[in-house]
Amino acid sequence: MPLVNIIRGETIPVAPLNVRTPIVKLPIWLVVTWEIIKAVARLVTTYVRHWYATLPITLLTALYVVYGWQRLALVVGGVALVATVWAFAHRPSWLRFGWWPILARVRRLVYRRRWMAAMVTAKLSISYDKRTIIPEIVRVRCRAACDEVTVRMVTGQIPDDFAKASERLAHTFGVRQVKAVPGSTYATVVLVLMRGDALQETVPPLPVPDLPDFTALPIAVQEDGDLYRMRLFGTQVLIVGATGSGKGSVIWSIVRALAGGVAAGVVELWGLDPKGGMELGIGRPLFAKFASRDFAEMADLIEQAAAKAQQRAARLAGRTRQHTPTEDEPLIVLVIDELANLTAYLTERQLKDRIKAALGIVLTQGRAVGVHVVAAIQDPRKEVLPARGLFPTRIGLRLSEPAEVDMVLGDGMRDRGALCDRIPQTQPGTGYVVLEGDPTPMRVRHTYCDDDTVRDMADLYGEPVGGAA
Ligand SMILES: Nc1ncnc2c1ncn2[C@@H]1O[C@H](COP(=O)(O)OP(=O)(O)OP(=O)(O)O)[C@@H](O)[C@H]1O
Ligand SMILES: [Mg+2]
User: Any idea which UniProt keywords this protein has (predicted)?
Assistant: First the structure.
């Protein structure tokens, strides 16, 4: 028996069953007609799918053919005029219902053109059973500074897969940054592609509210254009940033948001400035207590705060879960610049231990009873600040290394888009925060109060100097 079969010149290995497609001879006219039908069907599908472009073109062409170019010019001019008037008369609605939907159509085409390549190179396509399945674009929406592309994931993918590939996607689509947010259904993810940069310019100081809302202090502008409002009730705040990253501006933004409360007597700011008063000194009248040179004095202040926290906690136990600040019992906020000077670089062992113990008490017991800490530090490492975990709210400004981002904002936050190490030196006050109920970090820029603004604020809302120093 031969080991191979030779069928019509082809050598085919012997198999239990050899099957070949039968050859059917078709007349040429049938083939041509079939191809024409297919081509027409394709054309119609394209026409219907892109109705937003094809329909107007058809109508305009019909107009031209039937009535001539004058009528065409009249209609085009009329539409342009209406659009212009609308754009000037009510810009928000024009953008929302007129311009952005048009832009979204155009951008959808741009994204679709590079989609396949982008998915494959970002390893977001899935090869399975000799087929390649890629995630699908469901919807494209345009907003002021970003595009939101809703994507149906391939079964088995999770939004984090897209978050991890975000940098690659950003370069592929030529945008500044891409964020991946879980979509409205479990099968979708929304890619937010940031086009421009809303945070390029310095943010001027915000108006001072008469009575601060302690659950929402406006201190910065978010990259989507909204105000970032920080919760102070129930939390402690840590600001981390390399030198020159604008930690001072975060402190002053917070102080400014609280200044109305200082004047009304329901907020007491205690300032600790181990750099000798360099940062907080100009706003001295705003602080009820202030220490800037003597470390023993700073230890005293923190111990006083710890004692206050313990007293209040003992008194309020079982009665309420959130202390309400009053004139008799104001909200106490310890504002500490360069915290590392107190926790790590201090050479006097005894003093350091006292500070650590008292700070631990304030951080753990003060949250619910209105004794808060707002502290700034350059280095987030455990050796420098062992109590890092006791600050539930953390603001990450420019950092020197990628590894520091997760230390500050939490595990996986750099992958989800918190690129603190990439913030340019030319944009101080810019940083990332984690919003309540949102798994992805938000880029913000804090307001900048220059020295004169701080002085004016101190004159207006502070007590004349003379109290406990
Ligand atoms: N929010 C901001 N917007 C614009 N410019 C800012 C902002 N914050 C700070 N700057 C500018 O950056 C400079 C450095 O800021 P700042 O002193 O607050 O940094 P820092 O993080 O406290 O640095 P250091 O660790 O050296 O104290 C400021 O002098 C100011 O000119
Ligand atoms: Mg500083």
Answer: ATP-binding, Membrane, Nucleotide-binding, Transmembrane, Transmembrane helix
pTM of the complete model:
0.76
The type of residue at 440 is T
Please report whether residue 5 resides in a domain. Answer: no
Q: Does residue 60 sit in the same domain as residue 186? A: no
Known binding positions for ATP: 241-248
In a domain, residue 6? The reply is: no
- Output the CA 273–ligand 2 centroid distance in Å: 9
For 327-354, the pLDDT digits (tens) are 899 999 999 999 999 988 888 889 999 9
Verify that 290 and 182 share a domain, yes or no: no
Nearest atom in ligand 1 to 253's CA: 1
Question: What are the distances in angstroms from CA 57 to CA 62, 66, 107, 331, 370?
Answer: 8, 14, 19, 65, 65
Spatial separation of the C-alpha atoms in residues 125 and 153, rounded to whole Å: 9
The DSSP element (H or E) to which 149 belongs, if any, is: strand 146-152
Both structure tokens of 266: 């329901």
What SS3 class is residue 184?
Answer: coil
Which tokens hold the place of 447? 């307001």
Q: Looking at this protein, which amino acid is placed at residue 280?
A: L
Domain boundary among 163, 194, 225: 194
Q: Are residues 239 and 309 in the same domain?
A: yes
Question: Alpha helices of 174-286 — where are they, by DSSP H?
Answer: 247-264
Atom 5 in ligand 1: residue holding the nearest Cα: 428
Q: What is the pLDDT of residues 32-57, one digit of tens each?
A: 999 999 999 999 999 998 888 899 99
Burial 366-405 (b: 16+ CB within 10 A, else e): bbbbbbbbbbbbbbbeeeebebbebbebbbbbbbeeeebb
431 CA → ligand 1 middle, Å = 12
Question: Which amino acids bring their CB within 6 angstroms of ligand 1?
Answer: 202, 241, 243-249, 378, 428-429, 446, 448
Report pLDDT for 466: 47
